Amino acid sequence: MNWRRLLIALGSGATTFLLVGAAILSVIPDIPGGIIGVFGGLFAGLAAAVGVWVGLGRASAAVERIALGYAAFAYAFLGIWFMRYAHVIDGVGFQGQFLGGIVLAVAVVVVDYLRPPSRAVAE
């Protein structure tokens, strides 16, 4: 099993879940928007995760880096959210959390670009 491909697919699904859920919630107010947003986000996230898993099997390095940045946003955004929830970082608002997710996602892509290629054979 290719762990990198699996983590990119799961992170892409999580990013899609966050974006679609937030978009639906911003259009439909109150309780129905929350319920529809969660289920719409779950469906879109699952479809995105499966699509990225299948697509990364024959993707170029550039496409894989784009998917890596997209997935890294969800991991960074949720990581900052968990630290906010645990009161590890108290002074960060939602805008800081969003910008932190973007900055960390870009940093992951840059580090991946500058890293020398692995000697392991891709599966």
Automatic annotation (TrEMBL):
Transmembrane segments: 7-28, 34-56, 68-86, 92-114
Name of one Pfam family that matches: DUF8147
Domain of life: Archaea
Keywords: Membrane, Transmembrane, Transmembrane helix
Tagged with keyword Transferase: no
DUF8147 domain boundaries: 2-111
Name under which the protein is recorded: DUF8147 domain-containing protein
